[in-house]
Structure to design on (471 residues):
């Protein structure tokens, strides 16, 4: 029958048919299945989740919890090409009241995708551009395997899929460049994702209260000049900090946290110069699997400018958790999160009232923010982009690595003109746009349909304000 279909394909001027078998618990029904598979010489097979929790193909065999992280070893002789997969949930109680549901939260689904996609990066046989990936399912409502948006999770599963696709490695390393250390990391990563059941919660079954998102590794970068940093210990008391780097722009070192690494840079560009320099010189992660959150702070954490007084400042735990779940998080919570990109580009400060800076020194050569972006070779998301006011934010390291280092270099070079300069205000309005995930089409439609007016006042130019923001 397979030969017949191929003949029909050739007659229709097609190259043939790529036959893909299903690997799930239905393979157990007929004991002749392994023999028939070998005789048929089917081109490939795909991992059908969650049926891989069957008696014959066990969790340990495929080393995954919410998705595949490696080929099924016992089938590599039959299927040299195995397409991996994942699932959002499986609950067939509408059809069988005695069955046990196997559900995944949005965050569990996202972590499963991350493990699966990064597992592919260690497999030099996988050419990602031609690879296939099977998710159970789009809208299997009868068995609650649903990727399609719903009233409970909204676009959550689709947005997690988009997020992980954007972070997915785009190149595959040739086996010859893998070191012994790389192989150890690979084995460690596979064990990490194979043990995900322990990491994510006590049970694979549905629960409304269990399985909170695991807390990530946290590193802190502080731009320092001469402010007392006694606030640091109170700010970080509830979180284990993996690494703290203090970048000093002045000669002082009063109140620098114990065990912090101290670096020195020229006193130019304020905190934005420091952040750009740090991201430009950040080394790649040793393992694609091990992400972390990097928090960028200023030494005057507790002092705010006049236009920042309306902001609610987040605690570190909230800031980090938001960044871990969404990629980017701003320390100052303001109603002016999303901006019209085109109107924001017209932003410029033609004067700035500061005692120690002459107007001629402050003003840049650029007509407006848009001209500066073009010179930096930066393209913000459009039609809407995020802005983080206040210069303090947290971001996943993988999203920093996604940005070309040349872009950070351009920003740093621009900020080297002086200390308190217009370019610093441009950079402040750039970080969220280049480091965060762009708003989804659904988010854009929601925001555009509910905003009341756009702000044209310079300090928050381009911000979209809804009726609830106004009230």
């Amino acid at each position: 029958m397979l030969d017949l279909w191929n003949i029909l394909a050739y007659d229709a001027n097609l190259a043939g048919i790529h036959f893909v078998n299903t690997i799930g618990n239905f393979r157990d029904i007929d004991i002749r299945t392994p023999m028939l598979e070998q005789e048929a010489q089917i081109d490939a097979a795909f991992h059908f989740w969650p049926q891989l929790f069957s008696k014959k193909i066990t969790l340990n065999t495929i080393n995954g919890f919410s998705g595949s992280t490696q080929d099924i070893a016992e089938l590599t002789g039959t299927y040299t090409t195995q397409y991996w997969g994942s699932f959002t949930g499986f609950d067939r109680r509408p059809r069988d009241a005695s069955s046990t549901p196997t559900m995944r939260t949005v965050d569990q689904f996202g972590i499963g995708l991350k493990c699966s996609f990064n597992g592919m990066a260690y497999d030099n046989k996988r050419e990602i551009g031609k690879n296939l990936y099977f998710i159970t399912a789009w809208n299997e409502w009868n068995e609650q395997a649903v990727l399609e948006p719903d009233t409970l999770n909204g676009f959550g599963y689709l947005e997690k899929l988009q997020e992980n696709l954007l972070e997915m490695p785009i190149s595959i390393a040739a086996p010859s460049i893998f070191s012994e250390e790389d192989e150890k990391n690979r084995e460690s990563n596979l064990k990490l994702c194979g043990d995900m059941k322990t990491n994510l919660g006590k049970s694979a079954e549905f629960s409304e209260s269990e399985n909170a998102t695991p807390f990530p590794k946290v590193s802190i970068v502080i731009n320092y000049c001469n402010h007392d940093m006694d606030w640091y210990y109170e700010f970080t008391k509830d979180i284990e900090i993996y690494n703290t780097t203090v970048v000093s722009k002045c000669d002082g070192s009063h109140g620098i946290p114990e065990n912090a690494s101290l670096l020195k840079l020229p006193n130019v560009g304020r905190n934005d110069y420091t952040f750009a320099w740090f991201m430009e010189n950040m080394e790649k992660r040793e393992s694609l699997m091990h992400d972390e959150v990097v928090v960028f702070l200023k030494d005057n954490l507790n002092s705010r400018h006049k236009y920042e007084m309306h902001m609610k400042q987040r605690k570190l735990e909230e800031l980090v958790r938001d960044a871990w779940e969404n990629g980017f998080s701003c320390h100052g919570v303001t109603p002016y999160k999303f901006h019209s990109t085109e109107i924001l580009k017209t932003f410029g400060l033609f004067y700035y009232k500061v005692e120690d800076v002459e107007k001629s020194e402050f003003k840049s050569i650029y007509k407006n923010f848009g001209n500066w972006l073009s010179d930096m070779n930066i393209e913000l998301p459009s039609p809407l982009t995020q802005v983080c006011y206040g210069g303090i934010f947290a971001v996943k390291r993988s999203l920093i690595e996604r940005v070309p280092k040349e872009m950070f270099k351009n920003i740093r070079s621009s900020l080297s003109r002086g200390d308190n300069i217009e370019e610093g205000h441009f950079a402040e309005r750039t970080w969220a746009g280049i480091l965060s995930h762009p708003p989804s089409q659904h988010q854009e439609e929601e925001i555009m349909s509910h905003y009341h007016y756009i702000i044209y006042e310079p300090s928050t130019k381009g911000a979209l304000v809804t009726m609830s923001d106004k009230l």
About this structure: The chain has 19 helices and 20 strands. The chain has a mean pLDDT of 80. The longest strand covers residues 218-224. Residues 2-200 form one domain.
